Amino acid sequence: MSRTKAFIHNMAASAILQVVNMLSGIIVPRIMLIYYGSEINGLVSSIVQFISYFNVVEAGLGGAVIFSLYKPLADRNVSAISNIVTAAKGLYYKTGVFFSVLVLILASIYPFMVTVTDKSPWQVALLVIILGANGVLDFFVMAKYTTLFTADQRLYVISLANCVQTIFITAIIVILARQQIDIVVLRAILVMVILGKACLIRWYAGRHYAMINYSSETPNYTVLEKRWDVLYLQLLGAVQTATPVVLLTFLAKDLKLVSVYVVYNMVLSGVNGILGIFMNGLQAGFGEIIAKGEISTLHRAYNEFQFIYYNLMGMAFTVTFVTIQPFIRLYTDGITDIDYNVPVIAGLFVVSSLLYNLKTPQGMLTLAAGLYREQRVQLTIQSVILLVLGLCLTSEYGIVGVLIAVIASNVFRDVEIPYFVHKFLLRESYINTYKNMILCLSISATVIFLIKQCMSTEVFSYTEWFLYLVQVIAVVVIIFAIKSFILEWNAMQDCLMRIRIKITKRY
Fold first, then answer.
1. Helices (H), 138-182
2. Residue 323: pLDDT above 90?
3. Which region among 20-34, 178-192, 266-280 has the lowest average model confidence (pLDDT)?
4. Domain residue ranges in the chain
5. Which of 4, 64, 361, 469 is placed for a possible disulfide with 226 were both Cys, Cβ 3.0 to 4.6 Å?
6. CA dihedral for 76, 78, 80, 81, sign (positive or negative)
7. Lowest mean pLDDT segment, chosen from 81-95, 167-181, 290-304, 463-477
8. Local confidence band at 470 (pLDDT 50, 70, 90 cut-offs)
9. Which has more pLDDT, 99 or 502?
């Protein structure tokens, strides 16, 4: 399969998955808030974030395996593939045992760290174990297949399997929550769905990768040496993703605040998911280009991707900034145990997500090239900024303090990584990347200001909100199209030419 075909398949599957995830992400939290309340919703989210820390025991194995498989997959060297996958399988088993032990330790400690009105310590402990079961199944069953599919540009298989899983989980939650099933029992039932997905993935691998020997007598551990560099990056990544909820749990000491954070994060996760449609499968494609040493192709593909991504990202977060608060008001209508309608939180959340995504084109290249060790210092500084500011601001300012810390850490990374990528990988001037970043942010800020001045944000139903959303999207798309036509004509022309060539070749 060509890189273009693989990208199309991955993007299509990812698009389906993101639509399903967005619908589920809207439905499930609302159901949780109505039938279980903000405290239980915050409890589940808090536990999930703690468990996400434990994923670092993977020790960078996934990234190292994917990077190591690029070349043998491109060469169709079955023996080399088998040796790498066998080594990965054994290491994943050992990692799964370690992960399970950590979950059990958390289950014995966590119930005494929080206060939950309607749940005894043993029920909280059982909930921790159940929520950790997903990770256990991942390490013991799915991980070796997931890395293989990803490296072989078959991420669409994982996406479709996750899609089926999400549909079943959403349906079960909606049905059983209405029956007032205890949250512990409900989550235990969902584990069966996850087990079903694991069986589905294993069946597919058996049919389409029958030539691979998962028990090779010569497992290749040497190609996985980069895992320790990846481990450090994963530790820092866990700090970035899980720290806000952890800080709110222990410093703010209010699980309802965690629920507020999660509800806003739900919306931004949906936006990130939409952007992710255009990302899934690209890393493997760029990895293959780098592995083959196709430098001119790399420059062209990177510049085209950067142009497309910044325009899509700018439009997505501009629309989100002016529509999120009316949506949150409607979404949390009738929920009275805590106030979810906080405009400053909405604004900071959008700014934080925008700055997080601003570095995506450069971040993807560093991962595709396997530049793990070279980024340790920069990512350490980013994490220190987040932790120090978070510890200083969260106790007094709650969610606002957490988001300020996140924004500051992302600003540092946005400034640093373009210089790194252009110096160590692309070996060309980084000025154009900074210009593209500034242009994207400037246009987004200008459009937001104009919309805020000219359009009312008062909506009283989902129908009114949807019509408002359509109007905002239309305005934003037109302005960004004009911007690209006037200020980025050459880049737009190159992308259009590439699309035309692909269509001509196909037909």
1. 143-151, 155-178
2. yes
3. 266-280
4. 1-212, 293-507
5. 64
6. positive
7. 290-304
8. very high
9. 99
CB 209 within 8 A of CB 364: no
CA distance 51 to 238: 10
- Give start and end residues of each alpha helix (H) in 337-488: 343-358, 360-368, 376-397, 399-421, 431-454, 462-487
Give CA 73 to chain center in angstroms. Answer: 26
Predicted pLDDT at 507: 44
**Per-residue model confidence as pLDDT tens digits over 2-25:** 556 766 777 788 778 888 888 898
Mean pLDDT of 426-441: 84
* 336, amino acid identity: T
Distance CA 157, CA 204 (A): 8
Question: Could you please report the per-residue DSSP string of 232-293?
Answer: HHHHHHHHHHHHHHHHIIIII--HHHHHHHHHHHHHHHHHHHHHHHTTTTHHHHHHHHHHHT
The closest alpha carbon to 345, from 260, 468, 448, belongs to: 260
In the chain, the amino acid numbered 333 is: D
| CA proximity to 271, closest of 465, 408, 467, 473 | 473
Alpha-carbon distance of 106 to 52, in angstroms, equals: 12
Question: Is there a contact between 46 and 258 (Cβ–Cβ < 8 Å)?
Answer: yes
User: Which of 1-5, 218-222, 387-391 reaches the highest mean pLDDT?
Assistant: 387-391
Residue tagged 């605040």 (tokens):
257
Distance between the two ends of the chain, CA-based, in angstroms? 17
Distances (CA, A) of 106 to 16, 39, 183, 298, 415: 35, 19, 19, 45, 37
Structure tokens at 471: 């109007």
Is residue 214 within 8 A of residue 82, CB to CB? The reply is yes
Cβ contacts of 128 within 8 Å, gap of 6 or more:
47, 50, 51, 103, 106, 107, 110, 111
Helices 431-454 and 295-331 sit at what angle, rounded to 10 degrees?
20
Across 245-260, average pLDDT: 79
**CA distances from residue 507 to 8, 138, 213, 296 in whole angstroms, order as listed:** 16, 41, 39, 26
Cβ contact 245:258 at 8 Å? yes
> How remote is the C-alpha of 12 from its chain's centroid?
17
Dump pLDDT digits (tens) for 483-503: 888 887 777 777 777 666 555
In single-letter form, the type of residue at position 172 comes to I
